[in-house]
Amino acid sequence: MSKSPLSLTIPEPEFRPGDQPDFSALAIAQAGEVRRPPVDEAPELMRDLAFSLIRVLDGDGKARGPWAGGLSPDALRDGLRHMMTLRAYDSRMLIAQRQGKTSFYMQHAGEEAISCAFQRVLQQGDMNFPTYRQAGLLIAAGYPIVDMMCQVYSNEGDSARGRQLPVFYQSRAHGFFSISGNLATQYIQAVGWAMASAIAGDTKIAAAWIGDGSTAESDFHAALVFASTYKAPVVLNIVNNQWAISTFQGIARGAASTFAARGHGFGIPALRVDGNDYLAVHAAGSWAAERARRNLGPTVIEYVTYRAAGHSTSDDPAGYRPRQEGEIWPLGDPLERLKAHLIAISEWSEERHEQAAAEISEHVLAAQKQAEAIGTLHSGRQPSPRLMFEDVYAEMPPHLLEQRQQAGY
Ligand SMILES: Cc1ncc(C[n+]2csc(CCOP(=O)(O)OP(=O)(O)O)c2C)c(N)n1
Ligand SMILES: [Mg+2]
Asked: Domain spanning 43-377: which superfamily?
């Protein structure tokens, strides 16, 4: 028998710099088209939901179908303000990084709806295990912008005392677990925390967060084994923003199937959602949170979105993807879509929007002045290097004590 040489399949993105991107072949469900099963439907009867796209807002700003109707006009206005605040915060911090006031920053452009809407399905005491691209969870939970800025500046007001990378926030009171730079650890930690909540007979649920690229990590799969075996009260969020730094989602198997479908191998119900649709994210999140609270177990949710900016301030996407890709991305801008909806239902106007934008911009600027009055990366009051040695051991071991003394603290 003749032997032909073997070869590997290396997935390649469809479009590279210089190409004209075209997403017309992307299958996108109409708003309102996807059914909404009861939360206790058997997982094997709702496998179709991992291959469609739950959307509520249509092109005219109307809310359609069975996933609509969960939010009052006040809640929608709050949501719009949260997303506008996150975007204004991002743009101030991007400039601050370019001015050398911090070493590093990561934006959320295009993904604001996901973290801002999801936070609103949680209750006091629930816990997110976020990655670096969910600051909207904090903003929507009412965490002060000035505290976020102090963290980014690593100044004396930083609750992490300068020991974390900028944007690695933390607040137990706001349900935001300290961010780990080791991606996918969020999944096993969230599942473990959820299991502990159930073992203690508590009522709190957890939310795990991961990006498309990071689903390739083994922690993701281990977490799904434990979550499904023990029916842990956890929502397993996957943010598919198409890119993992310069690597396209196909490298994490995204070109072969949906990320939501990963849940099926574990018998976990899975939803695939328009991540740029605030109403759809909120509706899907509520559905999954209710399942967790009713002890029905985990839910996988894939949010389909697009990372409109660079990965971080250290990245230039022009080197690996066409510049226009973000502009022609078919799911639109989450802020514009929610704004259009509020105007369509006569609960908002261009004037009110302009006024809100001005208020938010003033609020963010005032917070920035306050944070900078404490200090930035290279000026003002910074945490003492002495703190570097604390909070790990109850009693400092002799070698650390010696190092601290050698460092002069
Ligand atoms: C375990 C681990 N491997 C690699 C990295 C380096 N790294 C930082 S961000 C990133 C890309 C992650 O992409 P994705 O999961 O899609 O999240 P996104 O940045 O798109 O939100 C990588 C590989 C890391 N931080 N942790
Ligand atoms: Mg990604």
From this structure: Thiamin diphosphate (ThDP)-binding fold, Pyr/PP domains (3.40.50.970)
Q: How far apart are CA 206 and CA 221, in angstroms?
A: 17
Q: Above 90 in pLDDT, residue 1?
A: no
Q: What is the pLDDT of residues 187-197, one digit of tens each?
A: 999 999 999 99
Model confidence, pTM: 0.97
Cα separation, 83 vs 108, whole angstroms: 10
Q: Are 75 and 278 in contact (CB under 8 A)?
A: no
Atom of ligand 1 nearest to the CA of 131: 21
Pairing of strands 299-304, 375-376: unpaired
> What is the C-alpha separation between 335 and 112, in angstroms, rounded?
8
Using one digit for the tens of pLDDT, what is the confidence trace for 14-67? 999 999 999 998 889 999 999 999 999 999 999 999 999 999 999 999 999 999
Lookup: tokens for 309: 């900016």
Residue 6 burial by Cβ neighbours in a 10 Å radius (0-12, 13-18, 19+): exposed
Task: Decide if 299 contacts 235 (C-beta within 8 A).
Answer: yes
The label of the residue with tokens 């991007």 reads 94
63 lines ligand 1 (CB under 6 A): no
- At a CB cut-off of 8 Å and minimum separation 6, what does 68 contact? 32, 56, 279, 283
With a 6 A CB cut-off, is 211 part of the ligand 1 pocket? yes
What atom of ligand 1 comes closest to residue 244's alpha carbon?
Answer: 13
- Sequence ranges of the domains in the chain: 43-377
314 lines ligand 1 (CB under 6 A): no
CA 156/CA 4 separation, integer angstroms: 64
SS3 state at 396: coil
Region of 206 (left: φ > 0; alpha: ψ -120 to 50; beta: rest) is: beta
Residue 392: the pLDDT is 86
